[in-house]
Write a structure and sequence with these properties.
342 residues; alpha/beta; TIM Barrel; two-stranded antiparallel sheet; globular; Aldo/keto reductase; Aldo-Keto_reductase; oxidoreductase; AKR; oxidoreductase activity
Length: 342
């Protein structure tokens, strides 16, 4: 696995060393407006290989993303150079209906392997938990897939500390994926069920999605019009609402000024800040443009002092709005029902 520009971090207690910054692929295929052409997206994947940004994060609900990766693997022959993560849990075509049952897990994995055109998935996540399905059931299915060689490592996403603890009693969980950025510190406190502390206690690596605050921390958004394009899902998020976006842009402008003083871009400052939080965190910023991929990788060579880390916290303390709309809170920090076995 080529990793020339990206430092390595370990997955789980005794898992492999992988690129310490992943490449989130959601926006390449869905939710951030119309996707680019296959050739444009292939160019991003090609450049990611060259840079050593080879920890790729997909899902079976990210539009055509698994199919796109399948095409890229076939044409490049570089499957062995990629640490490939994908997910199951949402019903196809829905962002609200969740099925984390054993049957869903196994069926979804088979479909992902087919679309990707690969024999195994390096890291397979339960994307979201259905609270009515005991996490123990889901974990047993994931462990069976691992035993069969179809997946190598197990991840959970958006679970509570209690659910993570129960899962770890069934088998080894290597990664928990959760939103974390300078704009979203919930996992550090009871608001996020103290998930950071729990993961560290259990030896579970934290993969931080949305480390750029869904684009706010890049400094590229200077008005609500910046996300007015059709298909941009950020319009539904409270931080981008009419009542909050102006205040949040003021926060971002102060963040941008700090980045200028540091000699880096706002996006680089945001990524460097997450990396500063500990060697057990792996941010997965997403992009569909080569220039932003290169910019993000450049963040890995930026070192923040303790004073600078604290200054970022001070600046972003003024952010307004919750991280998800009210209707989506049932998907966050999920507690599943206790398993009853006779």
């Amino acid at each position: 696995m080529v990793t020339q520009n990206v430092p390595l971090r370990r997955i789980g207690k005794n898992g492999p060393l992988v690129p310490g910054m992943g490449l989130g692929l959601m926006g390449m295929s869905s939710l951030y407006g119309t996707p680019p052409s296959d050739e444009e997206r292939f160019a991003v994947l090609d450049r990611a290989i060259e840079l050593g940004a080879t920890h790729w994060d997909s899902s079976d609900i990210y539009g055509d993303n698994e199919e796109l990766l399948g095409k890229w693997f076939k044409r490049s022959g570089k499957r062995d150079q990629v640490f490939l993560a994908t997910k199951f849990g949402f019903l196809k075509g829905s962002s609200t209906e969740i099925d984390s049952s054993a049957a869903s897990c196994k069926n979804a994995c088979a479909e992902s392997l087919k679309l990707l055109g690969v024999d195994y998935i390096d890291l397979y996540y339960m994307h979201r938990a259905n609270p009515k399905t005991p996490i123990e059931e889901t974990m047993r299915a994931l462990l069976e897939l691992k035993h069969e060689g179809k997946i190598k490592h197990i991840g959970l996403s958006e679970v509570s500390s209690n659910t993570l603890r129960r899962a770890c009693k069934v088998g080894q969980v290597d990664v928990v994926q959760i939103e974390y950025s300078a704009f979203d510190l919930d996992i550090e406190s009871s608001k996020g069920t103290n998930l950071m502390a729990t993961a560290r206690e259990l030896g579970v690596t934290i993969v931080a999605y949305a480390p750029l605050g869904r684009g706010l921390l890049t400094g590229a958004l200077d008005s609500k019009q910046s996300i007015s394009s059709e298909g941009d899902y950020r319009n539904i998020f409270p931080r981008f609402s009419d009542e909050n976006v102006a205040a949040n842009i003021k926060v971002v402008n102060e963040f941008k000024a700090m980045a200028v003083n540091k000699g880096c871009s706002p996006a680089q400052l945001a990524i460097a800040w997450v990396m500063k939080q500990g060697p057990d965190l792996i941010p997965i910023p997403g992009t569909k443009r080569v220039k932003y991929l290169e910019e993000n990788v450049g963040a890995l060579h930026i070192q923040l002092t303790h004073e600078e880390e604290a200054e970022v916290r001070r600046i972003v303390s003024g952010v307004k709005g919750e991280r998800v709309p009210d209707w989506a809170t049932y998907q966050c920090y999920v507690d599943t029902v206790e398993e009853i076995r006779g």
